[in-house]
Amino acid sequence: MGTVFLLSWLTQSVTGVAAYNEEQLRRLQAPVSWTEYLTAADFWSRTLQNWQSEMLAIASMAVLAIYLRQRGSPESKPVGASDSATGVEG
Fold this sequence. Notes:
mainly alpha
């Protein structure tokens, strides 16, 4: 899983530096190398925006799952019931 994470982060950095350099050239500024881009605020801003959205999605799913289970959703088993009790009224 760590390898998949690192590969996706590497891919994000490569595509990010390409987009960043395109913007730099539009502004008639010098492009930056990949290693310079890794220390740029643009890379970290994009990375943290991705992580923030993922963390918000996971947190909201967890909170909603707990809330719906406590509310007695018909798709959830009663709190404290065995695994075989899924879908059984409690």
